[in-house]
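Q: Got a minute? One more chain.
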Amino acid sequence: MAPIRLLAFAAAFCTVSLLLPTGFDGLLEAHKAQADEITKKEAKKLLGKPLSAKVDKTGEPLELDDDLLGLVETVWTDPGETPRFEVVAGKKRYGLPLKHTHVDAKIRGTVVQVEVTQSYTNPFDHPIETLYVFPLPENSAVNAMQMVIGDRVIEADIKKRQEARKLYDDAKAAGHTASLLEQERPNVFTQSVANVGAGESLDVVIGYVQDLTYDAGTYEFVFPMVVGPRYIPGDKVSATKKGHGWSLDTTEVGDASRVTPPIVGAGERAGQDISLELEADAELAIHNIRVLTHEVVVETESDGSFKLALAELDSLPNRDFVLRYDVAETAPVATLATYRDDKDGYFTLMVHPPELDLDALVGARELIFVVDVSGSMNGKPLAMCKDAMSQALAQVRPVDTFNVITFAGSEAMLWNEARPANQTNINEALGFVDQLSAGGGTEMKNAIDAALDSSGESRRNRYVFFMTDGLVGNEEALLQRTAAYVADFEKLERKARVFGFGVGSAPNRYLMEGLAEAGKGATVFASNREDPTLAVNRFFGLIDHVIVEDVQLRWEGVEVSEVYPTDLPSFFASKPLVVHGRMASSGEGQVVLTGKAANQPFELRLSVDFPDGPQGDPVHGTLWARAKIKELERDQWSGYDTGVVEAITEVALAHRIVTPYTSFVAVDRSRVVKGTSKTVVQGVDAAEEVDIFGLEAAVETLPPVQLGDSSGVSGEGFGVGSFGTSGRGGGGGGSGAGVSGSGVSGHGVSGSGRTYGSSSSSLGDKSVSKPMLKLGRPQVSGSLDKRVIRKVIGQHKSEVKACYEKQLMVDGTLAGRLEVKFSISEDGVVISVVIVSNTLSAEPGEAVGACVAKAMESWNFPAAQGGGLVVVTYPFNFEVGKE
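A: Always. Here it is, folded:
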């Protein structure tokens, strides 16, 4: 469920009779008139779950204790009630430019065509440039873009990336409104819009096509809504960043600053909402339509087609939208769709698996379960993995062997080698999994090494299962590593298969699907709103039913070329084989599929008919081009290749597809926008149930939102705090955002401002010795909510930790507790800081205290609602942890 700020909850909450501890009475003066007792039925309607369960359980007035406060943070709410992040410029506050995203999807057979409209409004009294990092499906072909300003529609041109960037920059300098769409990853894009006039609105319309996912009679359509926070490994290469994200670029992720969009703080929202409409035809009879991730309205037709719309109260873009539906008829053995224009012909062939004796095809296996326990898995994602592991271990067979590996900043193995799947070993594994906790970075390379090392005495085929949200930035290195290990197994005449089990509200589907492709396996996803055990059943349905391997296609009687993928995946019992190719001429013929089933030769013959003359849907030409580009991109896993880049660029320009080397650019030259433009970086919502505060170093280097540039729009955000107190959501985002060392982060003119960053900008710490800072509970005298105080302190956590890390270089064992007492004036300024106690030893400890006190003197808090001085006593606990 979406997080909620207490203010948004107060209107409903305060209609229930409450027993409040001392200190909260003054905060509820404005709501006393509503504090009437209501029935349990009314309370359930207002509160929803889980609070309604507590009402039912007790039947008594609720007491606002710590447990209840924890429940309050997970109550579902109308997203319109959640405080919207605002930009501070001078004495005014403004919303972020992106106001709305509308998704219009049309499913035709096995293909979906989608139009995404991003609506921007400039609330300022001067022009702005806005930058927005957002996701699209990893297998989509982005093939259209328009910019709409009033009644003017500007069609985008596809250009080489550098050329498109120059056209955009030139237009920006000349005062022309322009938009630029760039690809950072197959599933991460950046939209830049320059010279949006004061008070002006415009739309950017993006079009893409993709193949639907099919598994065992079920089609799936996914629309990702938010880019989750990536873990960034490697050493920082420069204080100058290529992008505007919270991370610096590193030796392992050279464009990290372009894939780490700023995230608004917990309990706030970036401001934009989303709507989605979808219609599906009835080529096959459709039934059992289900969306487990969102509330929707569905209208079905008598012919089996349907229309669907996202409910207005579920418009917060903080998780993937996942639609599934079944088809009633038995799928045909093969389907062929074609397109031909005056020059070229293209086809999409889908071959469904044959019916074979599945049980006879399953042999003894070595199963390796790899569980992500990094910080982003804290809470619901890890709990889902634990449930999934329990279900998985219940399905291993006595003839199998298995092991469990975990990874975060480092990896750990349950046993030195896989053991038989007897009940004793299963029970030990269940105990190991049950005690897992999340925290630290996502160093996935070492986990791949441990899981796919082919040394050892075992001669079994190995099946590796990665259970993770995949939120890392070094995808290509991981995919290359996986493919190399699988090739090593083949040299030993053994098989290694890699399967992905993606969990959470916004998993990195590009990485998960890529692991399965590199590892010749398959992927299953479980959203945070569905039962993971059902996904595990689908999982084992795959590994138990690998029925045809070493698959090849041979064409007879027809002339085809450039059929992709060239390295065909294994045939699973529930998943079809999909290929895209070019047809040179019309005519009838056969395609012959060969392979091995139970180590015996297998052959399947299918008739094909390529029609003559212009006909068909041009989408199949686009899908072929995307398939070729994907094939070429695999060649880049092992390093940059100029020839490959040129080949990708040629195909992309010919078929108008956005790639890492081609971009869409649109320029409105009909006018010049007057005034000095300032840059606003669009913040994104935190992915649902991804605990950004469980990502220690992410919070240390990541102010909840980074906005502005050196030309002057302040990066200091405004959000409404608990019970009506005004709270500042962290800012930053100037030209020096996240600089390593003291972490200078610009707040306005010339990028000046207080420090936020630390010496690491990655989500976690890969070192063996890990400096740790644990925040305590504040003791407060005055009318400022404790939760507001804790939030502000959390935003400055990196400064405090930087003081500690500096002295650790003097004394590597330095640890202890520092308690400070500080006073906040009625306008939110820290006016005094006193060290109450300090158990950190000798001079290094005193230096930590002095450093922290000095840093705190520059902190700002929201103005206390009741006015007057606020005095806070707060403990910081420092220790050196191990990973």
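A: Confidence is low (pLDDT under 50) at residues 1-80, 696-768.
Q: Perfect, thanks.
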